Amino acid sequence: MANMLATSLLAAAVLLALAAPAAVLAGDPDMLQDICVADYKSLKGPLRLNGFPCKRPENVTAKDFFSNAVAIAGNTSNALGSAVTSANVQTLPGLNTLGVSVSRIDFAAWGVNPPHVHPRATEVIFVLEGFLDVGFVTTGNRLYARTVSAGEVFVFPRGLVHYQRNNGRGAAAVLSAFDSQLPGTQSVAEALFGASPPVPTDVLARSFQVDAGLVEDIKSKFPSK
């Protein structure tokens, strides 16, 4: 009996060990040193992790770990009525290898952060002010949506299409946290209608079951970059 128990425990340990790498690879890799501040100026750093060379330790200062970007409200006077201000590894070098980042999203009345995905991170939002209608869609095409208000939290699972909309009761703002130093953002509309080179019109027309003229009209609103 004791031998059977020992065998079962060993088998469980092996299964956990085999599963662990998959869990680690699901997000940013774990770091093997205290810090690796991203060195934007050098393409040939002494150590390169996650695409960024590391500053030499003697050149690192407290400033590398500081940003006041999210303290300032974004300009929402645009077609979407929203503005995203990011503090990720591209703007806050001390985040390199730490696997986290934040953004601030400001909304004018009825402003929208349109459907998009973060391929490398789960996102959790904390509502700073206002009321937002939020939701995400699973791969089974089920929508999970509700209204969240100041002081409340909502989470969007990694890689799923999601959105936020100010429901019109004045300005709104949220603080978003990600479990990636560079979560990436891919807008559904821009990816389909503003890609360069463009996605073929007939592919989009058949996919959305509309005529080619309508697709071309939508494409004109998303000029390729």
Automatic annotation (TrEMBL):
Localization terms from the record: Secreted, Extracellular space, Apoplast
Protein name stated in the entry: Germin-like protein
Disulfide bonds: 36-54
Cited PROSITE patterns: GERMIN (PS00725)
SUPFAM superfamilies attached to this UniProt entry: RmlC-like cupins (SSF51182)
Domain of life: Eukaryota
Pfam families: Cupin_1
Entry's Gene Ontology BP terms: plasmodesmata-mediated intercellular transport; regulation of root development
Residues noted as binding Mn(2+) in the record, renumbered to the chain: 116, 118, 123, 162
Keyword set, alphabetical order: Apoplast, Disulfide bond, Manganese, Metal-binding, Secreted, Signal
CDD domains xref list: cupin_OxOx (cd02241)
Binding annotation for oxalate: 113, 118, 123
MF term (GO), any: manganese ion binding
A Gene Ontology cellular-component term: apoplast
Species classification: Eukaryota, Viridiplantae, Streptophyta, Embryophyta, Tracheophyta
InterPro entries assigned to the protein according to its UniProt record, in alphabetical order: Cupin_1, Germin, Germin_Mn-BS, RmlC-like_jellyroll, RmlC_Cupin_sf
